[in-house]
Amino acid sequence: MTRARREKRYEPAEVLAVALLGLLLRLFSGRHALTESGILPEGYDEYYHLRRIVYTADHFPNTLWFDSYLNYPHGLNLTWPPFFDQISALASIALGQHTPSGVEMVAAFLPVFIGAVAVVAVYYMVKAAFNGNSNIALFSAFMTAISPYYIPKTQIGAIDHHGLEVLLFICSALFLILALQRTEKRYVFAAASGMMMAALAYTWLGADIYLGIILAYVCIQMTYDLKSGIRSKEFAATLLLAFGVALIFTLPFWNAPWMLPSFAGLAAAVAAVLLMLAVSDFCLEKNISWTAFPLALLAIAGAIAALFRLAGIDIIALVRSGGDYLLSTGMGGRISEAEPLLSKSESLFSYSLVSSLGWSLILNLLLSLAGLAVLAVYVRRRGAGEKGLLFLLTWAAGALLLTVAQIRFLYISTVATGILIGALLFWAADAAGRRWRPSRAVTVALLLLLILPTATETVSFTGNLPQIAGDWDDSLRWLKSNSNPTSFYDNPEKTPEYSVMNFWDYGNWVVYIAKRPVIANNFQAGVDDCVKFYLSRDESASTGLLDARGAKYVLVDYNMLYGKLPGIAAWANEDPSSYLVVKDYGSAFEAVPTEKLMETTMARLYFFNGAGMGHFRLIYGSPTLVGTGNPDSMIKIFEYVPGALIRVSTSADQRVGALLNMTSNQGIKFSYINEGSLVDGEYEIRVPYSTESKYDTHALGPYMIFSGNEKGIKTQNINVSEKDILEGRIISVSF
To answer: Looking at the structure, do residues 692 and 612 belong to the same domain, yes or no?
Structure first.
């Protein structure tokens, strides 16, 4: 039996084995998502996908397009494309799972199979690009199976569209390469590529970014063809068919907010290919140098932009806004996943991914650049006819450039990195084989050297606990059980009764776990009021915001003050160092709150449990204690109440206040104190705590009302009922 036949015979088993490895790694990595209380996804967006998937399973094929539980009381129109949520819901229905817990379980495991399929797709994509080289293809598939940034997007509980997004982009590339390499089925594969592009548009709002990579390849390939004296008619026809099919499949929803950018991008892609073909043909007919081709395209693009501007359409502004998004300027730069890869650390709390992961990531980037150089050499040696390999080169380079702009794209560039390292490995092996025959030990050492950075990063990602696990999960379940249920959760076209004020990162958690409406969430609607509330240094301004937003509860946690504060300050266009001063002691850092921070509503609630404020009472503290000196609960829940008004009759030269000794549900003792202000001849003190025990956080006795000056202090003990607090009753005290 020949070697070729043996390779062909074992090829399916090898690919299956690698795909199985990828599947097992994803099961192992996401194992902590399976808990006794149900599925606990790792991040934030996953929880809103779950809300949407459960809703879609109940209303299939309709999904959630407006949610009154977001941006309360206005609600929010959603712009997430529906494909991932719909196929998750469809899989649940097909498997007979109709309960929320059953739907959750199916949705949690679906990304694992998406990741395994992606491994297979990479194999066939690379094999097609390298004209049947199964060795590079198998190594690339293996690297995808162990890819450290793609695994978290395709592990158990990764209920987000990113894993599917990568798979569809790979599949569109696979079919396009096949269309370029197999002329006999060119148009079949081109149509299949177009359907994958359309599916990508139904999956992610930013699909245009990937279309841009394909268009960049078209321009490079036509330039290369022109240099070689080749007409690009058939090539252009292939691309036009792919883009045209995608355009047709997106046509039914072309003007929907979530589809319009992709539809416009596809229409622009069709026009761009036609324009490039016309310019290329003109250059060939007139025997104009190929170097004029890209310059002519730039000139024409500028002229078109100018014409559109005269017509009232500022294309430059649209391109600039897209660039701002991609380069993380403006609002996007305030989101951790949108930070540039090479961003520099400015404080203890902001750091680049490079600084956090170190040598493994840097080494992989360097190996990727070397792999790009190898691919470029292959393309140059094989000439303009090597379209599949040139496309793979452009595809991989585009993925790396996206990651430089935003670290979120590591989930696609990690796939490209594996392919590029594979190309580098076999190029090095071929180069060495021409000069000397390396020993098996040398070969193994080289292989391990190239795999080690990726494997190291993979290990660092496996077994991470979900961010919500522990205190946050417990706190939100407590809120659900100890607050009045809100209406219309399953019919969110109508406005529910009240909302919760929380930092926006936690919004999706509150909606899905506690099933309560929120003012701000991860879509960033309502963030302005959220920031104003937490940074406010005036209680009346804070309560005014809560009244306008119908809030009844406020969440605050330790991480908001010491981890997320830079993002909060940046949103308010303030310098984070005006709130926290970071002192560097060489081997350690210390974050010291400034007076400005201590005056904010956020700090007054977290550090002092609402002391000095009249409308906020602590009702719950999470079990984990943090901080030095006097550790306190990591998460706190406050109830926003009218508060009882204590009116004290005494002489005007007195200082008047109220003191109440309290204990939290965690047994932490604290004192609430508030000072009275003179109004119309009487001192008024607004207090939020009753002396009754409605919650486990409760008073240890009555209020002590004191009135005094340098001559002496008089006191009275009074009780305040729940009705007094909730109805804003007046209680009179006379000295």
So the answer is: no
What does the alpha-carbon distance between residue 297 and residue 280 come to, in Å, rounded to a whole number? 10
- Whether 221 and 235 map to the same domain: the answer is yes
Of 83, 82, 53, 61, residue with least CA distance to 196: 83
Let me know if residue 725 belongs to a domain.
yes
Provide the number of structural domains found in the chain.
Answer: 3
> What is the rounded average pLDDT for all residues in the chain?
88
Domain assignment of residue 250, given as a range:
163-312
For residue 719, the domain's CATH number is 2.60.40.3390
Residue 177 shares a structural domain with residue 291 = yes
Q: Tell me: do 600 and 553 sit in the same domain.
A: yes
Domain boundary among 640, 664, 682: 640
> What is the end-to-end Cα distance of the chain in Å, rounded?
107
- d(CA 528, CA 534) in angstroms, rounded, equals 10
Where are the extended beta strands (E) located within 69-225? Answer: 76-77
DSSP 117-141: HHHHHHHHHHHHHTTT-HHHHHHHH
pLDDT at 440: 61
- For residue 485, the one-letter residue type is P
- The one-character DSSP state at 677 is E
Residues 525, 660: one domain?
Answer: no
Name the nearest CA neighbour of 422 among 433, 412, 434, 430.
430
pLDDT tens by residue, 116-138: 999 999 999 999 999 888 889 99
Same domain, 222 and 252: yes
Q: How confident is the model at residue 484 (pLDDT cuts 50, 70, 90)?
A: very high
Is the pLDDT assigned to residue 322 strictly greater than 90?
no
**Alpha carbon distance 361, 356 (integer Å):** 9
Cα dist from 186 to 239, 371, 452, 639, whole Å:
10, 28, 39, 65
Lookup: tokens for 362 = 């840097």
Task: Give the C-alpha separation, 183 to 388, whole Å.
Answer: 12
Residue 390 falls inside a structural domain: no
In this predicted structure, the answer to whether residue 351 has a pLDDT above a threshold of 50 is: no
356 within domain boundaries: no
Compute the distance between CA of residue 135 and CA of residue 126 in angstroms, rounded to an integer. 10
How would residue 353 be classed by pLDDT, with cut points 50, 70 and 90?
very low
Distance of CA 422 to the CA centre of its chain: 29
Q: What is the distance between the alpha carbons of residues 669 and 676, in angstroms, rounded to a whole number?
A: 23
Say which CATH number the domain at 489 has.
3.40.50.12610
| Residues 715, 573 share a domain | no
Q: Report the distance separating Cα 343 and Cα 355, nearest Å.
A: 9
Domain boundary, last residue among 612, 640, 668: 640
Where is 714: in which H helix or E strand? strand 712-718
Helix, strand, coil abundance in the chain, percent, nearest 5: 60, 15, 30
Closest C-alpha to 178, from 353, 392, 358, 8:
392
Same domain, 651 and 636: no
Collapsing DSSP states into helix, strand and coil, what is residue 253?
A: helix
pTM above 0.70, yes or no: yes
